[in-house]
Amino acid sequence: MKAVILAGGFATRLRPLSCTRPKILFPILNKPLLQWTLERLTKHKITEAILAVNHATEIMIRRQKIPNHGVHIKYSRDPLGIPLGTGGPIKKAEKLIGNNEPFLVLNGDIFADVNYTEIIKEHEEKDAVATIALYDVKNPSRYGVAVLTKNNRIKRFIEKPPKGTAPTNLINAGVYVFNPKIFNYLPKGKAVSMEREIFPKLANKGELYGHVFNGLWSDIGKPEDFLKINKVLLASISNKTKIKTIQEYKIVEPIACDKEVTIGENSTIGPYTVIGRKAIIGKSTRIINSIIFPRATISDSVFIENAIIGENTFIGKRVKIGKGCIIGDHVRIKDNISITDNVSICPAKEIIQDVLEPLHII
Questions:
Q1: Residue 294 half-sphere exposure, CB side, CA atoms within 13 Å?
Q2: What is the rounded distance in angstroms from the CA atom of residue 33 to the CA atom of residue 110?
Q3: CA distance to 40, 70, 220, per residue, from 29 (Å)
Q4: Do the beta carbons of residue 355 and residue 361 sit within 8 Å?
Q5: SS (H, E, C) the chain
Q6: Which domains does the chain have, with CATH numbers?
Q7: Active-site residue numbers?
Q8: Phi/psi of residue 243, each to 5°?
Q9: Environment class of residue 39 by beta-carbon count within 10 Å: exposed (0-12), middle (13-18) or buried (19+)?
Q10: Cα 336 to the center of its chain, rounded Å
Q11: Which of 129, 140, 173, 311 measures 20 to 30 Å from 98, CA to CA?
Q12: pLDDT tens for the chain, residues 1 to 362
């Protein structure tokens, strides 16, 4: 069976970090989301993946040289400047997918511990045109919501219902199995929304089914979601806070620290912190519940809490970065700067004075 990974979105809610990388390359515990997905495909013996991408995303994925774990990868590229929604890329990849057997489709911006073998089996048993993985959440208003019958047929599908109006808490988890008949519902060369146009139509015809699963699920559509999935996975590694003194600095577990990281004396890292490859952290620095991308340089006596620091960023001495801040790639922050909560800074900016109000610095 083949898998199609939808990876052509623009990730506007993850800016400024997504200005320089697609969502599918965001690191989760220092491993790109795409790599997690390929590993899960291999686990379920799916050996061919078609990446539905735009031109820029394809280039960045190829540059990353992510281990494919035995999965043969092909690319289906959207026409330049013509976004095709969530359905159009599937239609465009029809020749690569073929019309002989069901196929798996995965949203490229979700981390989902779905048993692909089980959802495929259930799809084939129901002889469905489409089967959607469904997950129970507290607030379903951000997502598509499904109403199930007793045999797991979806009788209604409502995309992003207003808050308080959702008929159930079962949401579209971004993992699908499709029969090739789905191509008959998708217009060629046009943008189409699976969630708003196709799924409700299939539900009305009795051809849409749901597969409810338990386990870990998260989208990474917002910075807080990205921080949360890293924190949840860190907690799954170690649910106890432990303090280790290594040479002259302290580690408060759980943390994830990649290779070739330098940490100065009297610094304390963690808990719930991810440090990327070749990051440099100075003396007497404190980092809590944050993600530090590769090759960031953080100088002496810096305080960072609940923030995301982009790749190749330079942070000067005695800088304080508030909660909810997102610092884009290649940003330079001078010494003795204070940045209040919820500030985002676009890539390659230089900050030479305090930022005392929540701002988006472009």
A1: 14
A2: 8
A3: 16, 22, 13
A4: yes
A5: CEEEEECCCCCHHHCCHHHCCCHHHCEECCEEHHHHHHHHHHHCCCCEEEEEECHHHHHHHHHHCCCCCCCEEEEEECCCCCCCECCHHHHHCHHHHCCCCCEEEEECCEEECCCHHHHHHHHHHHCCCEEEEEEECCCHHHCEEEEECCCCEEEEEEECCCCCCCCCCEEEEEEEEECHHHHHHCCCCCCECHHHHHHHHHHHCCCEEEEECCCCEEECCCHHHHHHHHHHHHHHHCCCCEEEEECCEEEEECEEECCCCEECCCCEECCCEEECCCCEECCCCEEECCEECCCCEECCCCEEECCEECCCCEECCCCEECCCCEECCCCEECCCCEECCCCEECCCCEECCCECCCCEEC
A6: 2-221 (3.90.550.10), 224-361 (2.160.10.10)
A7: 160
A8: -110, 125
A9: middle
A10: 33
A11: 173
A12: 899 999 876 666 778 888 888 888 999 999 999 999 999 999 999 999 999 988 888 888 888 888 888 899 999 988 766 778 889 999 999 999 999 899 999 998 889 999 999 999 999 999 999 999 999 988 888 889 999 998 999 999 998 888 888 888 999 999 999 999 999 999 888 889 999 999 999 999 999 999 999 888 988 878 888 999 999 999 887 655 566 666 689 999 999 999 999 999 999 999 999 999 999 999 999 999 999 999 999 999 999 999 999 999 999 999 999 999 999 999 999 999 999 999 999 999 999 999 999 988 88
The pTM assigned to this predicted structure is 0.88
**Which pair of structure tokens corresponds to residue 205?**
């015809």
Two tokens, residue 68: 């494919």
